[in-house]
Amino acid sequence: MLPSMMMSPSIRLLRWYEFANCVMKKTKSPETCSGGPGVRMQFSGAGKPLIKFRHCERSIYSFSVPQCCPLCQGDMGSTRIEDAPISISDPFSNGHQEKCSFLLKPTRGTFLREYDGKSDLHVGLTNTRGVVYNYNEHGIQRDEAGWEQSLSVPLVQPSMFGLMDQWDKYLEDFSASPAWLPHRYEENHYNCSSFALTFINCILAMEGKEQLDKREFTEKYVVPRTRLASKYIMLYRAIQERGFHVADHPDPVTSPS
């Protein structure tokens, strides 16, 4: 029997920075900036990195280091270590290469190209082969493509061989439950988040671990990623539009340790 829990509404954002409040108010669900319930958070890039360098006493971001400074047109040569270019990794990952993970992506389009901060987000769970199980108005979907640019939360430590061996069976059996038939789907109360977070709590219960509520899951595993992603998107689009971005304040994007 599934553990009882209030189900989550679909995640809808007004702005990236409203994500935390929006989800914590509307979602009941499951770090360090940690990974999932048992692993440290790691971001694996799915796109080109950003480059940060200093010149004219300013932090400048671009997709590559230019020969001349875009501000003063001076030579980019520098002998100071602190001015050396730094690569900032893409916070998104190819969800189909992530095993046993919780994934988050726009319902339509991608984060970097189409996402406008107002459209819906969709979540899913991967098996050990990168197939993404997710729930929508058509019932359970098993996607082998379409999640190539996602935010990922690893749910299983690499050393947990027993759970890893059974993960696919658990996920398939859970997905076959009548609880996830198409007619039961309800956009605001019984949806993709309900499916993913109920499964996570089932696994935790089976492992004899304390279940996670929506606030804890959101604060520890989702918000750190969305904050980093929002900053990355802002920089990426600014560079795409102008060729570079200049910052006077502390670094807007910092790769997690």
Automatic annotation (TrEMBL):
Alphabetical list of InterPro entries matching this protein: MKRN2OS-like, MKRN2OS-like_C, MKRN2OS-like_N
Domain spans labelled MKRN2 opposite strand protein-like N-terminal: 48-75
Domain (MKRN2 opposite strand protein-like C-terminal): residue spans on this chain: 85-239
Entry protein name: MKRN2 opposite strand protein
Organism name: Cricetulus griseus
Gene name in the database record: Mkrn2os
